[in-house]
């Protein structure tokens, strides 16, 4: 199949006009962040925040127009209401701004943002993120949970949320909410069928959208469930998000820990403090005889933390209740708050809250006197 080119796409988009402004979206400089990879096309359309909701038909039209071109397998278009970078066009470059430059304007009412990351998939990162968010909420902190795991957005299911958010008249999205935690997910923006290779580039514009165009309101903490791994996509997402700190989730065996170390290095490279490591699936206690088995060995994360100077935040066993409750939409912290597992998550949340306070204090001490953040 012939490859579609940027010129062909822009030419086609010249047929899509913004009726209110009487010109096509290319001439109006509304198209940005165009990415083409193996027949998969993605870009964003910049709109005024006030007009957001009424722009959905335009977005659909643009998507349909590109999808109809020969050589296009998929087309994903996201509306954004970004503010232009000072002195320049908003665009792809803006997406890789260092975190500290975008911090102030993005989420002024969100006091802290904590990334939950893992060196690889399947270690229980989302399960940890969801239970940690619920434990923070149970401690009385206003909490949001942003599911940025574009490869397997499972947070809505774990929080028992179905349906999709509806844009408000102003073009912003209202977060979904359950168990007292506000939630948004990449899964709402990126179609399930989108091929894996395509999700990475999509993730970047989708994350901007979820940070900037969602009515998060006032939050003490926004927990972000990152995509697993430490590649370019993860690094870009880390750079795009004004993170207060990061938590690494790992299983105890060596192979997982070496990936966890890469995660730690990724955050340190961009000066995001690593709050510590959580050992998940740490051990298994037989529900029949009570015997404890260390299926993936045990204590590796604690040793790794000591070796690398990370703090050890806690260990969570491999347990049927943890799986059933989180996969069923009622995570253990809310469905069995008196269980030992819920207590373990609450202890991790308490340590996390303490670390958030320290990181914010440290940042304030470093900030020039005229900065309020
Ligand atoms: P990741 O986000 O790292 O890909 P998930 O959190 O989606 O991993 O977990 C993968 C699977 O393992 C899910 O079915 C989840 O319920 C299960 N799981 C995670 N942690 C535990 C645990 N401590 N005990 C039992 N099952 C778990």
Task: Summarize the structure in words.
- The protein is α/β, with parallel strands linked by helices.
- The protein folds into 2 domains: 6-97, Fe-S cluster assembly (FSCA) (GMP Synthetase, Chain A, domain 3); 103-372, Rossmann fold (3-Layer(aba) Sandwich), CATH 3.40.50.
- Helix content is 36%, strand content 19%.
- The chain contains 12 helices and 15 strands.
- The protein has helices at residues 6-13, 56-67, 99-106, 125-138, 155-158, 196-212, 232-240, 254-269, 300-308, 320-327, 332-335, 340-366; strands spanning 17-18, 23-24, 31-37, 40-46, 74-80, 113-117, 143-147, 176-178, 181-185, 221-225, 245-250, 274-280, 284-285, 292-293, 312-316.
- The strands form 4 sheets. Strands 8-9-7-10-6-11-12-15 form an 8-stranded mixed β-sheet, sandwiched between helices. A 3-stranded mixed β-sheet has the order 3-4-5, sandwiched between helices.
- A hairpin with a 4-residue loop joins strand 1 (17-18) and strand 2.
- Helix 4 (125-138) packs across helix 12 and helix 6 (196-212) runs parallel beside helix 7.
- The model is unreliable at 83-105 (pLDDT under 50).
- It binds adenosine-5'-diphosphate.
- Adenosine-5'-diphosphate is lined by residues 118, 121-127, 152, 154, 228, 280-281, 316, 318-319, 322-323, 326-327.
């Amino acid at each position: 199949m012939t490859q579609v080119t940027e010129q062909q796409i822009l030419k086609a988009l010249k047929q899509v006009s913004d009726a209110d402004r009487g010109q096509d979206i290319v001439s109006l400089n509304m198209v940005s962040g165009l990415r083409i990879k193996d027949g998969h096309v993605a870009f964003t359309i910049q709109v005024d925040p006030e007009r957001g909701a009424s722009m959905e038909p335009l977005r659909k039209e643009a998507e349909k127009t590109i999808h109809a071109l020969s050589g296009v397998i998929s087309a994903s278009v996201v509306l954004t209401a970004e503010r232009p970078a000072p002195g320049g066009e908003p665009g792809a470059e803006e997406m890789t701004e260092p975190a500290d430059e975008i911090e102030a304007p993005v989420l002024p009412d969100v006091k802290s943002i904590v990334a939950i990351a893992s060196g690889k998939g399947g270690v229980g990162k989302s399960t940890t993120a969801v239970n940690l968010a619920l434990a923070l909420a149970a401690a009385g902190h206003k909490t949001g949970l942003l599911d940025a795991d574009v490869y397997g957005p499972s947070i809505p299911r774990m929080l028992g949320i179905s349906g999709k958010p509806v844009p408000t008249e102003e073009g912003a999205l209202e977060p979904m909410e359950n168990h007292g935690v506000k939630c948004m997910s990449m899964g709402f923006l990126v179609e399930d069928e989108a091929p894996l290779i395509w999700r990475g580039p999509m993730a970047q514009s989708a994350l901007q959208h979820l940070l900037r165009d969602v009515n998060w309101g006032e939050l003490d903490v926004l927990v972000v469930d990152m995509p697993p791994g430490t590649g370019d996509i993860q690094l870009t997402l880390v750079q795009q998000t004004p993170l207060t700190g990061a938590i690494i989730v790992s299983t105890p065996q060596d192979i997982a820990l070496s990936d966890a170390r890469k995660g730690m290095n990724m955050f340190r490279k961009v000066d995001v403090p690593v709050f510590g490591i959580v050992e998940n699936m740490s051990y298994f206690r037989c529900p029949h005889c009570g015997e404890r088995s260390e299926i993936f060995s045990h204590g590796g994360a604690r040793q790794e933390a000591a070796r690398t100077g990370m703090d050890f935040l806690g260990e969570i066993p491999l347990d049927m209740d943890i799986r059933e409750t989180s996969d069923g939409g009622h995570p253990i912290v809310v469905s069995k708050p008196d269980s030992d597992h819920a207590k373990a998550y609450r202890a991790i949340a308490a340590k996390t809250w303490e670390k958030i306070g320290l990181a914010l204090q440290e940042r304030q001490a470093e900030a020039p006197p005229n900065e309020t953040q």
